[in-house]
Design a protein that fits this description.
36% of the residues lie in helices and 14% in strands. It has 13 helices and 12 strands.
């Protein structure tokens, strides 16, 4: 049987040729949208007409989109985050939702530590000075032997901890679920404690919590005030976890020493965002996942998830397992 698969994920465009060939060998027609995602809702609906599945960016997948695209059967996220997908609405509509856990863990771990080093040693400032024809000194802060606080200690938080071990860092973590079940062997020592202790004692606070209703804006004015004034804040998780106005205020007032962030409340980050003018702040455009190796792995996994779902099998990256038993399931109809 032949299915039509739409792709909005830029990573798939760049690194997904083997994944595309895999789908085509199974009889799928693979089509790239004229523009990379995330698409706006009305554009997404227009592009999705006549397609059975989408390998998607963080486009808005909601009840209106599902109702407007009756042929759609599978939303396969080319990535781990599913905060742009209304999973409950997808299940009600009979649509299978998948993601690609683990594909980008090491890449985000690398990038997080790169941001930590970049902001503390002011590498971006030195580069900008050199490119402008200048020359000067930028005193920074040492990382080795300091205290790293992880807010969230899942796969990516653990990857960051592993890298911190190479810098002989003391590692604190706040993650009640992981603290209860334990971490795999082979990691440096991690001290699980409460969030206030992590904030009060850490020289660097790195955010790796999931985007949930209860974590929205978890880093606000009060939380930044609990950090050391000499501490740095790093976010490669999700922008929704941070009150950006409070972050800007904390930087402008010297409440914290600096910040580096790869994710934002609104993406792309608006040109007039106050974050773009905030002092001692290193900004990157949601790129932590984006190594060639991770992008290829994500593409392959998303293609495998898509084909498995369309063939009536259980995808490895399945999010909404109850949809498989639902009378509304669109696959096979």
């Amino acid at each position: 049987m032949s299915w039509r698969v739409l792709v909005t994920a830029r990573a798939f465009w760049v690194s997904g040729q083997p994944a595309k060939e895999y789908l085509e060998a199974a009889g799928c027609e693979v089509v790239y949208t004229p523009e990379a995602g995330p698409l706006k809702e009305d554009v997404l609906i227009e592009r999705l007409q006549g397609f059975d599945a989408i390998i998607g960016s963080s486009d808005p997948y909601n009840a209106h989109v599902f109702a407007s695209c009756p042929q759609l059967k599978v939303v396969s996220r080319c990535g781990v985050g599913i905060d742009s997908v209304d999973v409950g609405a997808a299940t009600e509509a009979g649509i299978v939702v998948t993601n690609t856990p683990g594909a980008m863990t090491d890449s985000v771990g690398d990038y997080t530590f790169a941001l930590l080093l970049g902001i503390t040693r002011r590498i971006h400032e030195g580069d900008a000075l050199m490119r402008s024809g200048g020359w000067g000194e930028y005193p920074g802060v040492a990382v080795a032997g300091k205290t790293l606080g992880l807010v969230g200690c899942g796969q990516i938080g653990q990857a960051v901890a592993k890298r911190a071990g190479g810098f002989s860092m003391r590692i604190l973590a706040y993650d009640p679920m992981v603290a209860e079940r334990g971490v795999p062997s082979g990691l440096p020592p991690i001290e699980f404690t409460d969030l206030d202790t992590v904030l009060a004692e850490s020289d660097f606070v790195s955010l790796h919590a999931p985007n949930l209703p209860e974590t929205k804006n978890m880093f606000n004015r009060e939380r930044f005030a609990k950090m050391k004034s000499s501490a740095y804040f790093i976010n490669t998780a999700r922008g929704a976890l941070v009150d950006e106005a409070a972050l800007v205020e904390a930087l402008e007032n010297g409440t914290i020493a600096g910040a580096a962030t790869d994710v934002y409340q609104q993406e792309p980050l608006p040109a007039d965002s106050p974050l773009r003018r905030a002092p001692r702040c290193l900004l990157t455009p949601h790129n932590a996942f984006n190594s060639a190796e991770a992008a290829e792995a994500m593409s392959i996994q998303s293609a495998e998830n898509t084909l498995a779902a369309l063939q009536g099998e259980r995808p490895l990256g399945l999010i909404n397992s109850t949809v498989l038993e639902s009378a509304q399931l669109r696959i096979g109809k």
